[in-house]
Design a protein that fits this description.
There is one protein chain. The protein is of the alpha+beta class and 365 residues long. The chain folds into 3 domains: 154 residues, no CATH class; 49 residues, no CATH class; 136 residues, no CATH class. The protein contains 7 helices and 15 strands. The strands form 4 sheets. Strands 1, 3, 4, 6, 7 and 8 form a 6-stranded mixed sheet that branches. A 4-stranded mixed sheet has the order 11-10-12-15. A hairpin with a 4-residue loop joins strand 10 and strand 11. Helix 2 packs across helix 3, helix 2 runs antiparallel to helix 4 and helix 2 crosses helix 6.
């Protein structure tokens, strides 16, 4: 925030800040002078420092996680000289439709502060995501209208004017890898680049990163995977080949589950399937243009990073034989297939299962 010499108050909108920063929470209103607003800063997307859609409690806030401010009165906070923030500004009469309050982007205790830093560091994108929920406390009229820049969050929930969440980072420099040989992907399985001819790293190295940097051969948040490029592509092709993609059923979590299974069990007959061979024969760019192949790459990344195991610990993976298991009998074989349904670990909707089963039976007859 910047102030001119005549001390006019300015409220430039910000979309992100660092943990520990002091910021101003500003509400612009119409016809609500003197009314109290209650605003909660809530966890967005998924659980990080609070459960999704629950308020985050910052220092000097109400323990419920809310901030109460009065429209037209600014804030009760004092500056370093003990003067009220609102009364010191020459344009105070033009702020009658605003309410604001300054606060710190940090929890009450130093121990919690360190926990929040670890949460940011352990997160995939190295950020916390928040949004704002507003209520009018004083005799709220049924005709009150909330003008929302992000309609997807609900009528009284706000992100910012660009419709994105407010971001908090830990203020430390992001890990940037540059001019290093290797094959680079993002967490969604998208191929970003292959770098060769540099002094650092090997052409066979594989990295996952958040995104490409602005400069050439620069990658943000890069992590080296414990594999080689050939093994990486081979394993991803196996997950693709053993999935139901050949039967027009594309399930991200099935493919992720197969990748996790084959991290524990290296025996995989699907590695020689037509679909696995087709996967390996394509270029990295071509694979990135096919959603199921991107899932296979992302699933292998997830398995190598010990991410969520959607197989629930399965050590084997079965395909066509599952469609022949009688629903009303507890047997181990139908004479052609050995049933291993208890190690499957894959949930599928009834609709997709029926389609999948029909396709398998047609192709196996």
């Amino acid at each position: 925030m910047r102030e001119s010499q005549n001390k006019k108050k300015r409220f430039p909108e910000i979309h992100k800040a660092n943990l520990g920063d002091e910021i101003f929470l500003v509400a612009r209103t119409e016809n609500l002078i003197g009314k109290k607003l209650k605003i909660e800063i809530r966890q967005a997307k998924e659980r990080q420092i609070a459960d999704k859609d629950r308020p985050v409690i910052f220092k000097n806030q109400d323990r419920s996680g809310s901030i109460t401010i009065t429209v037209g009165k600014g804030t009760k906070d004092k500056d370093e000289n003990g003067q009220d923030y609102f009364s010191k500004y020459a344009n105070a009469n033009k702020l009658e439709n605003f309410a604001w309050k300054s606060f710190l982007l940090r929890p009450e205790s130093d121990n919690e502060f360190e926990q929040w830093k670890r949460t940011i560091e352990d997160s995939r994108e190295k950020k916390l995501y928040l949004y704002f929920h507003a209520e009018v406390l004083d005799e709220q009229d049924r005709d009150t209208i909330f003008i929302n820049g992000d309609k997807s969050e609900g009528i009284q929930n706000f992100s910012n004017s660009e419709g994105t969440y407010f971001e908090i980072s830990d203020g430390e420099s992001t890990n940037v890898l540059e001019n290093t040989n290797g094959n680079f992907y993002d967490y969604d399985g998208l191929f970003l680049s292959k770098v060769t001819g540099k002094k650092n790293g090997l052409n066979t190295d594989v990295y996952v990163c958040e995104e490409k940097g602005d400069r050439e051969n620069t990658f943000i948040g890069a992590k080296k995977l414990n594999t080689t490029y050939s093994a990486f592509i081979n394993h991803a092709s196996t997950a693709y080949g053993e999935s139901s993609v050949a039967y027009n059923v594309v399930d991200k979590y099935e493919i992720f589950a197969i990748a996790s299974v084959h991290k524990r069990n290296k025996v995989a007959y699907g590695v020689n399937s037509d679909f696995a061979v087709k996967f390996r024969n394509l270029t990295d760019v071509q694979r990135s243009q096919k959603i199921a192949m991107k899932y296979a790459i992302a699933g292998e990344i997830n398995a190598l990073l010990d991410g969520t195991d959607y197989s629930n610990g399965a050590k084997q993976w079965d395909g066509a034989e599952q469609t022949h298991l009688p629903v009303d009998k507890d047997i181990s074989s139908n004479g052609r297939f050995m049933f291993k349904v208890n190690v499957m670990g894959w949930d599928i909707t009834d609709e997709l299962y029926s389609s999948w089963k029909k396709l398998f039976q047609i192709n196996l007859e």
